[in-house]
């Protein structure tokens, strides 16, 4: 079994609003890319067994070489489970020639109502060894901060 990375955050929005942002193409493009990146969804099929393909582009590739090319990470994601408004389970595969990025990483987005908001916990299991743990956890935390800003502004 591979490595597990995890991060969580309380977001001032109800679980249904947060869940909706996990399954809306334009929303995902806006909040999922961590700081220093932008994202573009090339394929979108938001149903169990469906998924999406996202191209993440580094705004400054000099300090962060990409997995797919010098400036990009391309990831194919399949929706393994959709349980509204509690959980989204994704299986992610990076396009990369480097075998240290090979394999399928599972990303579980767990939503729990807390007070007037939602605690979102992201658990990444079987993280490929080529992905730096500290950078990955920082990236997940950044995406969660972006998600909070996105849904709290809309709510």
Explain this structure to me?
The chain contains 3 helices and 7 strands; from the N terminus they run E-H-H-E-E-E-E-E-E-H. The protein is α+β, with helices and mostly antiparallel strands and 155 residues long. The model has no long low-confidence stretch (mean pLDDT 94). The chain has a 7-stranded antiparallel β-sheet with strand order 1-7-6-5-4-3-2. It is globular and about 45 Å long. Helix content is 24%, strand content 44%. A hairpin with a 3-residue loop joins strand 4 and strand 5. The chain has one domain: START domain (Alpha-D-Glucose-1,6-Bisphosphate, Chain A, domain 4, 2-Layer Sandwich).
Secondary-structure map:
Blueprint (H helix, E strand, L loop, with lengths): L2 E9 L3 H8 L2 H7 L5 E9 L5 E8 L13 E12 L3 E9 L9 E10 L2 E11 L5 H22 L1
Antiparallel strand pairs: 1-7, 2-3, 3-4, 4-5, 5-6, 6-7
Question: How would you briefly describe this protein structure?
Answer:
This protein is an alpha+beta fold and 155 residues long. It has helices at 15-22, 25-31, 133-154; strands at residues 3-11, 37-45, 51-58, 72-83, 87-95, 105-114, 117-127.
Indicate how many domains the architecture comprises.
1
CATH class equals Alpha Beta
The share of residues in extended strands comes to: 35-45%
| SSE topology string | EHHEEEEEEH
Binned, the helix content reads: 10-25%
Describe the biggest sheet? 7 strands, antiparallel
Q: For the largest sheet, list the strands in their spatial order.
A: 1-7-6-5-4-3-2
Record field, number of beta strands? 7
| C-alpha geometry | globular
Q: Quick check: average pLDDT?
A: 94
Radius of gyration: 15 Å
CATH H-level superfamily title: START domain
CATH topology: Alpha-D-Glucose-1,6-Bisphosphate, Chain A, domain 4
C-alpha termini separation: 39 Å
CATH architecture: 2-Layer Sandwich
Low-confidence blocks of residues: none
Structural class assignment? alpha+beta
